[in-house]
Design goal:
The complex is a heterodimer of chains A (183) and B (134). By secondary structure, chain A is an all-alpha fold. Chain A has helices spanning 3-13, 19-42, 45-61, 72-95, 105-112, 120-130, 134-145, 150-157, 161-182. Classes of the chains: A mainly alpha (183), B mainly alpha (134).
Chain lengths: 183, 134
Amino acid sequence: MSELNEDIIIQDLRTDKYRRAAFEKVVSMYSEKLYWQIRKMVLNHDDANDILQNTFLKAWANLDNFRGDAKLSTWLYRIAINESITFLNSLSKKNGIEVDDPEGLLMDRLESDNFFDGDSVAFKLQKAILTLPEKQRLVFNMRYFDELKYDEISEILGTSVGALKASYHHAAKKIEEYMLREV
Amino acid sequence: MKSLDDLKQEIGKNGGFDVPNDYFENFSQNLMTKIPESTPLSNRPRTTLFEKMKPSLYMAAMFAAIILTLKLFIPKDSSSDTTQTEVFTSYDMLLTPDVEVYQDYYNDYSLTNYELSSMDQYSQVESFVHFAGL
């Protein structure tokens, strides 16, 4: 979205009369991007759908907290990521296991999801991504699949660009090694 | 083995995940039905400056009332206060001899500087007690 468009939408979000219509536009514009980010973290479609809905409901409830310091997309990404992490933490607490356990709960969820095509290469790549720690997994997904710029990721996660580059480099190396072993 | 870039070409940006048909087309409509009709900003009660200042004003009024009450009910006895202060001052002077203060007293009794300097501190105190009639 261009800066001008974003400015108009933000202005409308602050006006009683146009707020609802402007928010509907925001939902249409960002739902797909946010969905894929959430889905790659929680793996299951139904959970990703719930988290995406919560993300927008929270955004709506906290519209007056959005001051326009960051981009609208950055703000929404932050809410979506926080919601995903909260969900994963609650899931691991329920099951009494570590979130980062690659052979554990997340792998089962990946295998049992009806909307994962189970293609052998895709499955192996997702298994490889699951070997990464949570934060590295986030960075890798954002950079590799969503092709977000390091500056944008830095704003969303509050981590320096240098640290993100190093994190992505390590993640990519680990995944390549895993794929070499498995293929 | 294929490079990561080649893998992405093969698998796609969605990483092998899929969604039900028309999911994104319907998502926005479904979500808007769940969002409350009343907006969060217009629901927020608008607070006036007076409302915001109320606690501070109450506090100030309370302190003012306490001070006024104290002034009204505690009578001021200025004469007894002065006498007490004077007595305490003289008594303190005896307990803590201060040469300069005594010199002022001796000057009143027309002693010369030479006479004053020849007196040690102890005798100055004794003389002062004598002259003061204590």
